[in-house]
Amino acid sequence: MSSIHGLTDGPVDHDRPVAEATHITKRFGPTVALSDAGIVVRQGETHALVGRNGAGKSTLVGILTGLQAPDAGAVMFDGTPAPPLGDRDAWRQRVACVYQKSTIIPDLTVAENLFLNRHARGRDRLIRWPQLRRQAEQLLAEWAVDVDVRRPASSLSVEQRQFVEIARALSFGARFIILDEPTAQLDAAGISRLFERIRALRAQGVTFLFISHHLQEIYEICDQVTVFRDARHILTAPVADVSRQALVTAMTGEDVTMPDTVHAAPADDAPVLLTVRELRTHSGATLSMQARAGEVVGIAGGGGSGKVEVAEAIVGLARPAGGTVTVDGRVLRPGSVPDALDAGVGLVPQDRHREGLVPQLSIGENVTMTVPHRIGRNGLISPARRDAFADRTIADLAIKASGPHVPVAELSGGNQQKVVMGRALASDPKLLVLITPTAGVDVRSKQTLLGVVEEVRGRGTTVLVVSDELDDLRICDRLLVMFQGRVVAEKPHGWSDNELVAAMEGVDLDHV
Fold first, then answer.
1. Do 181 and 158 touch, CB atoms closer than 8 A?
2. What residues contact residue 28 under an 8 Å CB cut-off, 6+ apart?
3. N or C: which end of the chain has fewer CB within 10 A?
4. pLDDT value for 1
């Protein structure tokens, strides 16, 4: 086996800790983010770190990567103390991190992002652009990332940005890599490709700390699991020794189940609220469908299925190449989000960081952004009305925050997603479109977000759930399964996991 970025074959000492954080305490004002917590990650393993939002995972990552110092405790790499916080090069040689929130700079090209502050230069100190692009092409080719390095990063899809970030992190040659929710925005095929790379690197002695809310991934890729809850270390054990129920209980301190998916289908005489007729996206995906008031319809599919493209065309995030979308008798203006909002469409987009939130603004400002008429008069916003509106949303969605004035940037991922949901519900929508609604959120937040669907359908709202997450799709009355841009199957409520996954992958089990 050849070397990769300085990694060479050799015996792996699986008992030697690559990274240790012991007796870590960290406070932010009166908030205790970590209390005498710790973790030991050994060479060559993939070690899962799990816990609900706010458990202390992100704080530990910040300490393990040298972005902040603990108030008490110590960090060691390969048995030696961590370098000073100011020595960034020394930290990069020991640990690399791929964060859930993209750190790609959209205004730069892919090549510039890959080698930011590491540009190939000549003796005259000028950047050698051809050499830089060649290096970038070699790096991406090594990781089978099919992206033109000359493209602006702003044009990349969620999956492309994720893989560019992973390639960039690996290019530093660190033997300890933290993956913070790396699959949150990836489809099944993308996750499979990521896991293949993780296994190949692990065989060469690379060590991973894998942070995910998708517990099935923990059992698929990880050797050890550590659970944090309420800023404390709760459990470390081999994954094979911990049942799924025991893992959830350790994370929550109580038994948690997903919402009951047994519910009555909408009445046969319920009015049709959504009609999609011969909708065609610029990528070639097509969709025709109808949905009634109070009906929850899922659109399932893997990468390249076209499910996200058609959903974004329905709500106006993308202008379709043809077709019409009608909501409660009103034909929507193609490619117009304002027109969709005015017609009664609520949206939870695929990428909350780029499309769902303004992180510098408060919870109250984000939640009420699309309903100024409800919190003001004569063009003037009433702060009191805005805060009262936001307080109701905070209570209804169990958003963990001290009040509506808290900036969204200070919230955990699950609570940020609840703010996005709150804004989608602010207008009492006739049609609610949820695109991968539980990506990157913990078990309890997922329970809350999916529980909202049952509430709004009871009020007659039509819900469209677009996802490849099986838990998201179980709440649906029926599913439209897309593959390579077209609907290949329709599944009634009660489908089996095997038959749905097979349909999403283009396999007809009846003819196997």
1. no
2. none
3. C
4. 30
User: ∠ at Cα 346 (345, 347), nearest 5°?
Assistant: 120
Distance CA 120, CA 143 (A): 21
Structural domain of residue 34, as residue ranges? 17-103+174-252
Q: Which of 393, 392, 375 is nearest to 384 (CA)?
A: 375
State which residues of the chain have pLDDT below 50.
1-11, 258, 261, 509, 511-512
What region does 255 belong to: left with phi over 0, alpha with psi -120 to 50, or beta?
beta
What pLDDT is attached to residue 500? 83
Q: Does 239 share its domain with 347? A: no
Q: What is the Cα–Cα distance from 378 to 384, expressed in whole angstroms?
A: 16
Burial class (CB in 10 A: 0-12, 13-18, 19+), 512: exposed
Q: Which of 202, 155, 145 is nearest to 4 (CA)?
A: 202
Mean pLDDT of the residues in the chain: 86
From residue 501, alpha-carbon distances to 20, 473, 482, 497 in Å are 39, 12, 11, 6
Query: What pLDDT does residue 359 have?
Result: 87
Give the CATH number of the domain where residue 301 resides.
3.40.50.300
Question: CA–CA separation, 510 vs 499, rounded Å?
Answer: 10
What pLDDT sits at residue 122?
A: 63
Domain assignment present for residue 29? The answer is yes
Q: Report how far apart, in Å, the C-alpha atoms of 46 and of each of 203, 239, 442 are.
A: 11, 10, 20
pLDDT digits (tens, 9 = 90+) for 441-499: 777 888 888 889 989 998 999 999 999 888 889 999 999 999 889 999 999 998 887 78
- Give CA–CA dist 142/324, Å, rounded: 43
Quick one: which of 405, 401, 436, 434 has its CA closest to 415? Answer: 401
Could you write out the three-class secondary structure of 180-234? ECCCCCCCHHHHHHHHHHHHHHHCCCCEEEEECCCHHHHHHHCCEEEEEECCEEE
